[in-house]
Amino acid sequence: MYKYDDYDQQMVDTRVEEFRDQVRRRLAGELTEDQFKPLRLQNGLYLQLHAYMLRVAIPYGTLNSTQMAALGDIADKYDRGYGHFTTRTNIQYNWIKLDDTPDALADLAKVEMHAIQTSGNCIRNISSDQYAGAAADEVADPRPYAELLRQWSSFHPEFLVLPRKFKIAVIASEIDRAAMRLHDIGIRLVRSDAGELGAEFHVGGGMGRTPFIAKKLRDFVPIDQMITFAEACVRVYNRYGRRDNKYKARIKILVHELGLEAYAREVDAEFAHLLTQPIEPPLAELKRIQGFFTDPPFAQETGGEVDPDDRDDPDFRLWLDRNTYPHKQPGYAIANVSLKPIGGIPGDATSDQIRLMADLAREYSFDELRVTHAQNIVFPHVKKRDLYALWQRLDAADLSTPNLDTVGDIIACPGLDYCALANARSIPVAQKISERFGSAEKQAEIGELKLKISGCINACGHHHAGHIGILGVDKKGKENYQLLLGGSEGADTSLGQITGPGFDEDGVVDATEKAIEVYLANKQGEERFLDTYRRIGMAPFKEAIYG
Amino acid sequence: MKIVTGNDLKSGAVIWWTGVGWSLDVNQSADVADQGAKIIAREEGVQNVVGAYVIDGEKDADGVRPAHIKERIRALGPTVRPDLTLKPADPAAVNWVI
Lengths: 547, 98
Hints:
Chain A contains 18 helices and 20 strands. The radius of gyration of chain A is 23 Å and the shape is globular. In chain A, helix 1 packs antiparallel against helix 4, helix 3 runs antiparallel to helix 12 and helix 6 crosses helix 8. Chain A folds into four domains: 6-110, Alpha-Beta Complex (Sulfite Reductase Hemoprotein, domain 2), CATH 3.90.480; 134-291, Sulfite Reductase Hemoprotein, domain 1 (2-Layer Sandwich), CATH 3.30.413; 308-396, Sulfite Reductase Hemoprotein, domain 2 (Alpha-Beta Complex), CATH 3.90.480.20; 411-546, 2-Layer Sandwich (Sulfite Reductase Hemoprotein, domain 1), CATH 3.30.413.10. Chain A starts with 5 loop residues before the first helix and ends with a helix. Chain A is an alpha+beta fold. Chain A has a five-stranded antiparallel sheet with strand order 1-2-5-4-13. A five-stranded antiparallel sheet of chain A has the order 3-14-15-12-11. A five-stranded mixed sheet of chain A has the order 6-7-8-9-10. Chain B has one domain (2-97). Chain B is built from three helices and five strands. The longest helix of chain B is centred in the middle third of the chain and has 10 residues, at 36-45. The A-B interface holds A 26-27, 29, 33, 47, 49-52, 80, 95-99, 345, 416-418, 422, 425, 427-428, 431, 477-479 and B 7, 9-14, 44, 46-47, 50-51, 67-70, 73-74, 77-81, 84. Chain B: It holds the Pfam family DUF2849. Chain B: This is DUF2849 domain-containing protein. Chain B: It comes from Novosphingobium organovorum.
């Protein structure tokens, strides 16, 4: 894991004290809310429906156990004993007091964390593959490159006031586990035929009210020019992106309206210019960063296998089959913790659960955890022979739900229960669907089904990318829910299509059930819901739902 | 009736204008008629409230009920966490929101 150097620590510490003074001035009446609002937002502090909300950055979703434990302690010390893990792999606290915020930020700084650039029209938290450094299918570990991008984008003087917020994802596998093509810039690390590492650039993706799948801009940018090329991409956006209409200000609109070719020409010209000015970080810096991301000291003998006797425990077997993923190292596995208990609130974890996961990472996963964009937690390096002991500890804390990538593993934004922008509640819909389809038998029958719910058109719940997506809207002062089918966020990224008129809360749960019934009646072989939908099209689903 | 609501500057808590001050209880809300803008300017100016605005509501025998569901959720708390609402001992209070 990356460790702050003196410069990193000094920047974060200084920022805390700067904000402490800004809060003091606000409370003393020396700053108006109009003056203070952009300052608090730059430090991740929103004013939400019930209280202030603090969004803490978790760079590329990576945490060590000390940091995770600190997140649990902050939940107790400054909030109401829980946190909410988000689709940007951050954590949010929903009940922070303004005068406590500087102390909370100081506590974060002690464990090399902050809330800088988790809001505002700047480059936000860089996201990545939650299996980075553990998956067998990656061409390189994407984390050093994500860290390089983090350092480049933090306090970048040119990019702190972009036309709109800007999100970047970096992956290094053919399988996209980070919704890379739904980002403003998506980068996939690739190898040339000669074995050289490079970056494949995608631009102009995003969800929100106008969803677009990112278009491929470059097949291969030499890795020692990645930052320079990213700078060219963002610089062109900063120059031409619209500032007159916030709904048309994202890079996806620029790329769409300008056209990919015209945008690419501008980027190429800017890139050529930038190459004459040495802005790429020196190779020595990349090497220094890479030094923090070496493999953990895996056991020389293999990590062993799961004891056959342990497999006799049917609950463990279910979890093992559903929530673990192959590791690159023989004898090890990647273990996923679902934060989606049946009927629970997606992404929420209590302070005790957070601290327990910190302890378990220390004991079983070389001190490492990851947060996923699907609002779950990952132990990236667990010996197979330790999986049963790990599962038992998780099970005792209600953290062993075996539903990864099934209908119960729902992404849901906080919705109208917490969010000032929302039009409808997301969480109660997620809870009802989870309860209706949550049994192990039902989930096994349905198989992989990614269901995503947003409480407004801003799409924080990624509804466009759900095999089944649900969008909450306000219809004459009442909550109403649109149903979408056919979205995906992986290598086969697609945008869901609306089925037709919307429903009330119970109605959309019933409609979801009908859609699943159509799938089960029509599936062939090992088809997933998405495969069947793509083969038979929307018509049979509409007929069942509205007929 | 017209109600003024906002958030307490220091704690962020949802508060309601009572006619003489601010309360956490929506039932204490006063009908501000056409005086909302004046009240907001004064109260924000002395740091008593942040993000204040005027909403519609109704008053009946049961108390004050904001017209829009969003404001009723603000008045009570998150419907999915009855323990964190202003009526933690009354899980049925959520029905008032819906």
